[in-house]
Design a protein that fits this description.
Helix content is about 35%, strand content about 20%. The strands form 3 sheets. It has a 3-stranded mixed β-sheet with strand order 1-2-3. A 3-stranded mixed β-sheet has the order 6-7-8. Strands 4-5 form a two-stranded antiparallel sheet. Strand 6 and strand 7 form a beta hairpin. The protein has 8 helices and 8 strands, in the order αβαββαααββααββαβ. By secondary structure, it is of the alpha/beta class. It is elongated.
Length: about 200
Amino acid sequence: MTRTPSTVADVMTHAVVAVGRDAVFREVTDTLQRWRVSAVPVLTGDGRVIGVVSEADLLNAGDRDGARAAALTAGRMMSVPAVTVHPGSPLNEAARAMARGHLKRLPVVDEEDYLVGIVSRGDLLKVYLEDDRELADRVRFELVATLGPGAGVGTDVRSENGRITLTGELPDTVSAPILERLVGSVPGVVGVELRLAAPA
C-alpha cells in the first residue's frame, strides 16, 4: 500500500524564495511579483528564518511611510515572530496554524530555525483530492493496524468525496466515539458517519 502523506515533509516544497533582512521595499516587491507568491520568509545571513514579509506588510508600509517606504528594509517591514512548522509536524497542525493566522503558506524550519522548505494551503489540500477507493483502503488499513485483524470483520468501509461511512457491526474492541475519532484522524477524511450495530 502506498504511504499516505501525513507530515509536512511529505507535501512541502523544498525550493523556497526568500529575502535577507536588508532587502529594500522594491526588491521585496519585485521578488513577490516575479515568483507569484504572496509572502516570503526573511532570513539571517546563515539561513535562519527571523520573519515573513507579505503583500499586506508592504501595503501597510507604503500607507504608513509614504515616500519613505522605498528605503525600508525587509527587517523593518516583516511580521515577527514568523509562524513556522517543522518537517515532522502533522498536516492538521500546519492547517490549524494557517487558519489561526489567516496565512496562505508557512516556512518549514528545522530544530535550529534553518529554512528547509515551504508549505502552502494548496499543498495541504492535495491530501483531500485522492481517489475515494484509495481513501477507503487506507481507513481499512488503519482500523486493522490500530485495532487488530478482527477490526475489519463485519464492517464495511465506503468513501464518497472524502466522507467515510462505516456500516455493519461495531468492533467489540472499541467504542463508537473512539472509532469515529480514529477514522476522522486519517489524512484525507473530511467526515465520518457510523451506521454500526453493537456486536451480538
